[in-house]
Design goal:
mainly beta; ten-stranded antiparallel beta sheet; seven-stranded antiparallel beta sheet; 37 strands
């Protein structure tokens, strides 16, 4: 009886369940935490759709170094939505809401029952690869880099079906440090939003630079920027329509209660800045005077439709391969009569992704963006918008948090959220699409110059991305020839005809071998060119007169050797 009960229980645990008639798995939430670390950044990462927020101790740990106390952001979350036929689907991470599970998704109709084997984040760096080349010792993540799950690889041995470090394979590093993880939204039920799953696999690659691949190599903003690439794969047999991707953030720039947010529509950027020039937090790390600005930059959004609009705002309408960039970024104020800023059901997420408040109210360019809240009734000509506070506070124009009514009246600073969305687009069965994000940081001489400088940093990042971040393989160091060449003795010696010597070359090198008489005069050149690696047989000329001779050999940077031999008659 006891064993029968165990069998039934195991079947219940391992069998997929259904949500709204759609099969879902029975995976446990991912528990892995990793830190992407460079000399300029320290960023906590998670494999469940969350970013930055360490829910184990609720501390802020995103650091732009050398500052080890203040942080520009508290938490970030991935949101996805789309339609399967007429059915809206949402997959989201939020506080107390987890709708991504570790691991790939082979078939959305047969979701995994156990994701624990993929409850990992793999982190590698250029120094890891250099260490392997130098010592033969590989870190666990380097040796187990999950190429089979889509982690990018440089194929050094010409065999794409394997990953063999010894044969020349290595992670395809864009920057100098990288982290990879894979998630899916069908591993269990979406108990937070109440939605059925989209049926997608999400491959995530975070990376950062120690130095710029573009001049100047010391370009500081690039070294202070986290980059994040999401690849979305449709694992259903039908298309996903109206696919949208959002990055939401509880920003908390230093002291959390004195922040403003804004949108830079030309640069596809949402950002946070301090309401005044002093960020003096109590109990948390404040930035003090001249606080920075920080943001989420959409380097490459979802593909745009042929709709007669300039979706990427580059001056060209419906060009081939056009991407939509940042399409909506509504205000997300915390704890107001029209929303908490922290959506919790599918309708709230969809409303915000479409550029509305979470209660569905359209945004207008006035006050807090919501008619009748916090300011007098808006003027009759107040324009609707899908972007919160799109004017730059640095130049004092309307509509920003510092000029909310056109007369220079600011809104109240506070604990802010912000969200940026790209899309919609369609994704066919089995197809994938990549979205690239960056998280720029800038600190000027005051809080508003930090905003202006952030826009300049965004320009530089967009230009660098447009040039194409190069994938830079870590070259295996050339093996230096020994200081003393490995050569055999001259055989036979003495000789009545020709003699021979064998030279061992650990790598290719230019070899020059000459024969000289007792007075040092060069009589013959028996080798001049690149040879190796391997052995090289050298033969002296036949018919030399009787006497004493020297065979001189020089290879690469190694010291030359002189081998005496004698010819007899």
């Amino acid at each position: 009886m006891r064993c029968c009960f165990c069998l039934v229980l195991s079947l219940l645990v391992l069998s997929p369940v259904e949500a709204q008639g759609v099969p879902v798995g029975s995976c446990e939430r991912g528990t892995t935490t990793a830190t992407l670390q460079t000399s300029s950044l320290s960023v906590p990462l998670f494999n469940d759709g969350h970013l930055f927020w360490d829910y184990s101790d609720y501390k802020r740990k995103y650091r732009v170094l050398p500052d080890t106390l203040a942080s520009p952001v508290y938490a970030g979350n991935l949101w996805l939505s789309g339609y399967i036929g007429d059915s809206p689907r949402v997959a989201a991470a939020a506080y107390d809401l987890d709708e991504f599970w570790p691991g790939p998704l082979v078939d959305a109709e047969a979701p995994p029952s156990d994701c624990s084997a993929y409850d990992r984040i793999w982190t590698v760096s250029r120094s890891d690869v250099e260490q392997y080349h130098g010592t033969g010792r590989a870190t666990r993540d380097l040796s187990e880099w999950p190429y089979q799950s889509g982690a990018p690889v440089i194929d050094g041995d010409g065999d794409p079906s394997n990953y063999d470090l010894a044969a020349g394979d290595q992670p395809r590093l864009i920057g100098d440090a990288a982290a990879f993880w894979v998630m899916n939204d069908a591993g269990n039920a979406h108990t937070g939003t109440g939605s059925a799953p989209l049926g997608v696999e999400v491959r995530a690659l975070a990376f950062a630079f120690e130095e710029s691949p573009f001049p100047p190599a010391s370009f500081r903003p690039l070294r202070e920027t986290l980059f994040l690439r999401y690849e979305i794969v449709n694992r259903r047999s039908v298309p996903i329509d109206s696919l949208r991707l959002s990055l939401w953030s509880d920003v908390d720039l230093g002291e959390y209660n004195d922040d403003y947010v804004g949108t830079d529509t030309l640069r596809h950027l949402v950002y946070v800045y301090n309401a005044d020039n002093l960020d003096d937090g109590e109990g948390v790390g404040g930035y003090g005077e001249a606080p920075p600005a920080w943001g989420i930059l959409f380097l490459r959004g979802l593909p745009a439709a042929d709709n007669g609009r300039d979706d990427d705002r580059d001056g060209v309408i419906d060009e081939p391969g056009e991407r939509s960039g940042l399409t909506t970024a509504p205000p997300a104020p915390k704890n107001t009569p029209f929303g908490s800023g922290d959506p919790y059901d599918a309708e709230h997420f969809l409303n915000m992704q479409r550029g509305r408040f979470e209660d569905g109210t359209p945004v207008i360019q006035y006050g807090y963006g919501h008619a009748g809240y916090g300011f007098d009734d808006p003027p009759s000509d107040a324009r609707p918008t899908v972007f919160g506070f799109p004017a730059s506070p640095a130049d004092g124009s309307f509509w920003s948090a510092l000029d909310a009514d056109g007369n220079g009246e600011p809104i109240n600073p506070g604990d802010r959220r912000m969200v940026g969305t790209t899309g919609p687009t369609s994704l066919g069965p089995g197809d994938s699409v990549v979205v690239d994000l960056a998280f720029p940081f800038a600190r000027g001489s005051d809080h508003l110059r930090s905003v202006a400088q952030l826009s300049s940093v965004a320009n530089g990042l967009l230009a660098a991305f447009g040039e194409g971040f190069p994938s830079r393989p870590v070259e295996r160091p050339a093996e230096r020839l020994p200081d003393r060449l490995a050569v055999s003795r001259v055989r036979p010696n003495p000789t009545s005809g020709s003699a021979s010597v064998t030279l061992s070359l650990p790598e290719s090198a230019h070899v020059e071998a000459t024969v000289h008489d007792a007075l040092g005069r060069r009589l013959a050149v028996i080798a001049s060119g690149t040879h190796g690696p391997g052995t090289l047989d050298l033969t002296t000329p036949d018919g030399l007169p009787a006497g004493a001779y020297v065979l001189r050999i020089r290879a690469g940077t190694a010291d030359a050797v002189a081998l005496p031999f004698t010819v007899v008659r």
